[in-house]
Amino acid sequence: MCLDTGRALFRPPFQWREFIEQAWFIVSVTVVPTMLVAIPFGGVLSLQVGGLIRQLGAQSYTGATAVVAIVREASPLVTSLLVAGAAGSAMCADIGSRKIREEIDAMEVLGINPLQRLVVPRTLACAFVALFLNGLVSVVGLLGGYFFNVVLQDGTPGAYLASFNAIAQLPDLVQAEIKAFVFGITAGLVAAYKGLNAKGGPKGVGDAVNQTVVITFMLLFVENFIISTLYTQFVPAKGM
């Protein structure tokens, strides 16, 4: 199915209306939860890292470590989990409902490719929305980390901001965006596959939704490990 979807991606016409509608739907169900998760996530990282940094006597690097932790690892993971949990489950339920109502079979009888009509725009919508959500999580997480570090741990605002580029570098952000894009593609493909193969009526759709979330989470962590490993191997740390 993944190969067929890849071929359908380059086959005209592209369903722009469906893409825009799905992208807006994903934004509507993920933006607020993403922000609400990013604030405490950045705060917890800042508190934990800040406490460790204070014990080591390197308070001036609190901002740098927060940037690396949030931008490089936390942001794409938070983004992908919310996209998979909220958007992926809804996408699977929608396609699965169409499957048990035999709408997919009717489309094939009419000569309409369901992959090109339904799967491609939804998968691309997941991927592109994940890119923007990743940036949102990074900004909100860093603001939350700044608040917790400066207000609760009596940190120095100037030191927190001045150390941003001490360890972090632009490839960190590029890697995070690549992760978010890959995670979005994965969430869309898994949701579409489970939805298209739903069987057994409404109960089968519910089972497909549950399987979509579990399988997507497992794949995301595996992909995150692979991408992070390749990044550390090919991109040298700053100053080295």
In short:
The chain is an all-alpha fold and 240 residues long. It contains 9 helices and no strands.
3D structure, described in words:
The chain has 240 residues and is mainly alpha-helical. It contains 9 helices and no strands. Helix 8 packs antiparallel against helix 9 (201-234). The radius of gyration is 20 Å and the shape is elongated.
Write the layout of secondary structure elements.
Elements (H helix, E strand, L loop, with lengths): L1 H8 L6 H41 L5 H39 L2 H7 L4 H39 L4 H6 L1 H4 L2 H27 L4 H34 L6
Helix pairs in contact: 1-5, 2-3, 2-5, 3-5, 3-8, 3-9, 5-8, 8-9
Keywords: Membrane, Transmembrane, Transmembrane helix
Organism: Actinomadura violacea
InterPro entries: Permease_MalE (IPR030802)
| Class of secondary structure makeup | mainly alpha
Task: Give average pLDDT, whole number.
Answer: 84
Number of E-state strands: 0
The number of helical elements comes to: 9
Q: State the shape.
A: elongated
| Low-pLDDT segments | none
Order of helices and strands: HHHHHHHHH
Strand count, sense and closure of the main sheet? none
Helix content: over 70%
Radius of gyration (CA) equals 20 Å
Distance between the termini: 43 Å
Task: Tell me the β content.
Answer: under 5%
Transmembrane segments: 23-47, 124-148, 178-196, 208-231
InterPro entries: Permease_MalE
Keywords: Membrane, Transmembrane, Transmembrane helix
Pfam family, one: MlaE
